[in-house]
Amino acid sequence: LERITDELARSTPERETLVEVFERATLTEDEERKHREDAQIAFERARADSEYRRHQIEVDQLTERHSRVIEAQVQLGQADEVVDSIVIDVELLAEIEDAYLELAKLRAATQRALPGVTVKALTDVDVIIEADAVSLTADEERTFSVDATASIVVPDVIEITVTAGTDGADVAGALEEAEARYEELCRRGDVTGLPDARVKADLASEALRNRATAVETFERDLRDLTLEALANKIQRLNHKIAEFEATRVEIPPIPDDLTVAQDIERSAHDAVTAARESAGRADDLARTAKAKLVDFDLGHVHLKAQLEIAESAVSSAVRMLTVSREERSDDELTAAEDDARTAVTAAEVAIAELTERLAALDADTLETLLENARAAHVRSTKDLQAIEDHRRELEITLTVETDRGPARSCDEAATRLIEARIRHDHLTSRAAAAKALYDTFVRHRQEARQRYNQPFRARIEQLGRIVFGSTFAITLNDDLSIGTRTLDGTTLAFGQLSTGAQEQLGLLARLACAMLVSADGGAPVIIDDALGWSDPGRLDRMGAAISSAADDCQVIILTCVPDRYSAVGKARTVRI
């Protein structure tokens, strides 16, 4: 009791120290947690500033890409117009150049082979040269070559006839053939002559280079996006920028550029990391101090409980001693204690004698034999029980087999055979019915496709001739998709067509389908900003086709580029 009381007295200052340490650790933990939260807020703000500046740079870059793609689209359309308008190519230009050189050589040879005639007027005079009336002034000369015969007439005065030789006539014939070939080549190339052919060939080459540059710009700036997707991405980034600017507090100000913003973000990240580590250490210290205080309080409570138990035991002992003294005196208790000690000594002597006797009997061997006998008894009991269980199972089996008999087994087998045959016949009938149903579905589906094929193809070709011309024709696959396209006698598979042509045919097919079902109530055709790969000339004809289809069905066009559909004559524009 005194020990416990002393321990409680000594523990009081120690507990006060632990409480003081715990309170300091808790205060430090709160301060570090607040510092960590402030650092986290600063880091998130710095990260948002960096993302804002990064979005601005992305918008600038994407806007430049978008502008380049728009310019390339215009350049591609102009190049296609130039290429489509120029008939001449490298081979035809070479033929024109060869014909021009041949013509020049023959003209020079003609000048050498044909006789030349020079008419000089000595006074003002009117003459007729090759049936053309010519007025000559004094000293005026006219020179010309004679390829066959030529006449010079001074009316009412003289007529002079000049005849060329045979060689001159041959040269003149070759010259006429060369001139005819040169003119034919120029007509084929739709040019006036060699200079014009060279100019148009240069224009075509430049247009092809511009087209290649435009396609390269598409691949470089669009990458895996479409023009609409690129514009939508710019719009989303601008929305994020505007939303950030509307919600960003003024203090601290936004960094001037991305580099400064990233530096601030890195510093804020380091500060957050340090604050988290410091807060973690403070939290560990607070938990340790709390654990020590809790352990100490548990020990203190245990000591108090021990003190209460000890005080209760002392009180009980005092009461018992008082009662015992009332029943027996101290001398009687002392005599009883001596008798008890004597009895204990005698018992210890008897135990020693019994221990010696037990050792002489080899107790370990007796214990081993006893354990073995017990195990043998258990095993025999289990074996007897197993034999009894097997006997009962044999009796039950014998009874069942006696009651059933071979005849009953045969009847049961026959019944199972009949049931199996019935199931087999049923399954066979169901399989035959399923096959007949499948064949019927296939036949009717094929017939339906054949019924749809001709009117569907006719509608597509009707619209297609508006866009591609009178030589346009298509074939349909079994699934009613477009298989081939024929234009100007050339047939190409759908997959071999350009992206723009595939998109145009797909749109025409949708319009044709809507036109076919218009008689039964119809279905609207919704076009979401299509025809991005079509040149301006093709867009005009596609507009006419869409306008024609709108006579039979409703067509709804969603677009952020209204000019692309300006050629739709019957359109009504609704801005949203």
TrEMBL record:
InterPro entries: P-loop_NTPase. This is DNA double-strand break repair Rad50 ATPase. It comes from hydrothermal vent metagenome. Gene3D superfamilies: P-loop containing nucleotide triphosphate hydrolases. The lineage of its organism: unclassified sequences, metagenomes, ecological metagenomes. PANTHER family: DOUBLE-STRAND BREAK REPAIR RAD50 ATPASE, PUTATIVE-RELATED (PTHR41259:SF1).
